[in-house]
Structures are given as structure tokens and as C-alpha cells.
Amino acid sequence: MGSLVQSAASASDRRRSGARLWASPRSRGLAALALVVALAPLGLVNDYLYDIAILVGLNAIVCVGLNLLIGYAGQISLGHAGFFGLGAYGSALLCAHYGVPPLAALALATAAVSLLAFAVGRPILRLKGHYLAMATLGMGVIVSIVLANEDRVTGGPDGMPVPPLTVFGHALQGEQAWYWLVGACLIVVVWLALNLIDSPAGRALRALHGSEVAAEVVGIDSARRKLEVFVLSAVFAALAGGLTAFYSGFVTPAKASFLHSVELVTMVVFGGMASTFGAVVGAAVLTILPQALTVVKEYEMVVLGAVMMATMIFFPRGAVPTIEAWLRRRRP
């Protein structure tokens, strides 16, 4: 009888813990994201809109990883487009030149980028502030120059074609199929990021952001934690880069340019640093907005700049955290 009572009590505890888990804001946010991904095709009436939605998802995958590095660990990076470009070119080269199956090429390219990020991250993450920003900028510039100049391998500034992505012998074709693949990858990446944030490693990252000295005093290995999140963010960027290459069927060195790195950082800051869903929103807004502003033609960049300035003035913490704080103040 006692064992039955204990079993019932433990089952009740599991149910309560599960209810608390799904009652958390992050779990509700993940469910909302999955719902948006599932229902968005109802409003995507043509391939052009599907193409924009796919680009939103690919940019969001990079931004979620970059937000872990910048927003949670407090380590700036202006060279993440380099990892994006290496993931794209690595996947393309392994398929086109060595006959590696596309999925295996994507996995191998992502693994190679993680090893490179580990090798590069160990020395440069000893730097802080603008010194770290300059080091990551230099890394990104080197990658961009190599991709542009090694024309016998990469095709140079003109780029190179990429074979189609095949899954179990079937080529993935059409915007709708790609939408579901990228949407599923985005949900998995966001889920991984949320689990990391809620783990002891995530709390260590937040402690590092507050004060590295204080974090080390309480026993956190700051060098190790910074390197781990740097490698993880590079893996997300390489994954998105490889998927982008297979989706577009062509890749150019512009994918690894400094301008692309700045765009990615801007998306993170716009949505809200230390906010996973803010990174997704920032990627969505700053991917869709330039497309919507094409109606104003030559004033497109002026309007885009004005919108971003206004956002930073009225939403200094980023769009999502500021709106969340406003809603909490309004709640009775």
C-alpha cells in the first residue's frame, strides 16, 4: 500500500513538474513559434513569399547562435559570416568536387567549421571588448578574401554552383519542401538554445556576461565556457550556410562578407540581446523589411535606417525585451 501511495505521489509530482515546464514563458514561446511555422503557409500564396520565409528561417538559425555568444556570454563577434560562408562553401565543394552525398557533406562541413572555431577561439577569446571585435573582424575578412581569391577551387568572386540536396535518394525541390525543412531546423535550434539557457552552462554564461572575475571566483571556468558557446554559435552559422547553399543552388563570397556579419549582429541587437525569441524576431523583421521597402525605390535604405534608429531610441533593449517589460508593467 505504501509503495502505491509513493508511486501515485511521484506520478503526481511528475505531472505537476510537467505542467510547470509547459507553463514557463520559454515553453509557451517555443509552442507559439511552432504554431507560427505550422500556420504561416496559409498566408504564403506564392513562391516569392515562401522564399522570404525560408530566408527568415535561415537568418534566424544564425542569429539564435550569435545571440548565445553576444547576448548571453557577452562576447562580440563581427566575423560570423565567415563561418556561414565556410559552411556554404564546404558543403558545396565536398559535393561538387569529391562526390560526397549532400547530407554527409553538410555534416562534414559543419564539423570542420566547429574544429576551426575551436582552434581560432582559443587565442582570440582571451581578448575583451573592442579588441575581441577587431580579432573576429579580422578572421571574417581573411575567410572572405580566401574564398574570393581561390578562384580555381571556389570559383572566385563569381561563385560556384551547388548540387541539389538529396534526402534518401530524392532531391529536395520546391519552396514548400524547403520551407518545412528550414522551419523544422529552426524549431530544433531554438529548443536547443532554450535548454542550454536553462542549464547550469547557461547560468554560467549569464554570470560571465555580468562579470568574468566574479564568475571565476565562484568556480566557473570562463575560458572553457566562452570557447564552448563560440563553437556552438559557429556550428549554427555553418549549418545555416550549408542549407543556404543547397537551397539557392549557388554560392558566392558575399555570404562571408563583413557586411553580412554586420547584418547578423544588427538582427540580434534589433530583436533584443539575451532573448532567443528576440533573435528570431530580429531576423524576421530585418529580412522582411527590405523586401517591403522596395516600393519606395531609391529611398529604401533611408527609410530602413530611420526605422532602425527609431527602434533603438524607443526600444533600447531591443524590440522583444522592451515589449515584454511593457506588458509586465501593464499587467494588474
Automatic annotation (TrEMBL):
Signal peptide positions (record): none
A cellular component term, taken from the record's GO annotations: plasma membrane
Pfam families registered for this protein in UniProt: BPD_transp_2 (PF02653)
Transmembrane segments: 29-46, 52-74, 106-124, 131-148, 177-197, 229-247, 267-289, 301-320
Domain of life: Bacteria
Bilayer disposition of the protein: Multi-pass membrane protein
Molecular function via GO: branched-chain amino acid transmembrane transporter activity
PANTHER family named in the record: BRANCHED AMINO ACID TRANSPORT SYSTEM PERMEASE (PTHR30482:SF18), HIGH-AFFINITY BRANCHED-CHAIN AMINO ACID TRANSPORT SYSTEM PERMEASE (PTHR30482)
InterPro entries to which the protein is assigned, alphabetical: ABC_transp_permease, LivM-like
Keywords (A to Z) from UniProt: Cell membrane, Membrane, Transmembrane, Transmembrane helix
Protein name per UniProt: Branched-chain amino acid ABC transporter permease
Organism (species): Zeimonas arvi
Subcellular location: Cell membrane
